[in-house]
Here is the input.
Amino acid sequence: MSENLYAAPQAELIAPQPETAPPFYVVSKAKFLTLYILTFGIYRLYWAYKNWHQFRHASGHELWPIARAFFSIFFIHALYREADAILQRDGRSHDWRHDELATLFVGGVIVTSVLDALSRQNIGYPLIDIAGMALLPVMAWVTWLGQRGLNAAAGDTEGRSNARFTALDYLFIVLGALLLALACAGLLI
Here is the structure.
């Protein structure tokens, strides 16, 4: 209280704290699986980039998100470990076996790459193409299980903050659906 009884009351001014961005990219299950499958896994590049980009800004670490996205098989273990460290630091639990999921991710990417290389050489047609198509939802699911851990580390386990599809998402869904229809038609012919 002031000594001057006639002085106007003074409020203690506190500057509002800027809202901090989550340490990882958050996305809902439906959006993630839809975009992953309908873009034939290309969404994985965007997903990896966004996770490393968010982590770089939240942590202040110097890293290259684009390089880590393109070479995700070398960095997925580190990404999941960082998320697990945040969960442990904050005293939150999430049973997600991050090392196993990262290893499954790496194995799936390698198998997918081998199948793609065989397909480009017309080796094992059409079985190799069918195997590649069948592996797509498996890889989407394995990657989603990892994303659940990243969502948990970001404080939004269900990914509700990024559940709505944007106009760009719809564009990629339409293009991916057309590509999927052409690929299926090519297998049938």
User: Anything to note?
Assistant: Residues 127-153 form the longest helix (27 residues). The helical segments are 29-38, 43-59, 65-70, 72-89, 98-120, 127-153, 167-188. The chain has one domain: 29-155+165-188. The chain has seven helices and no strands.
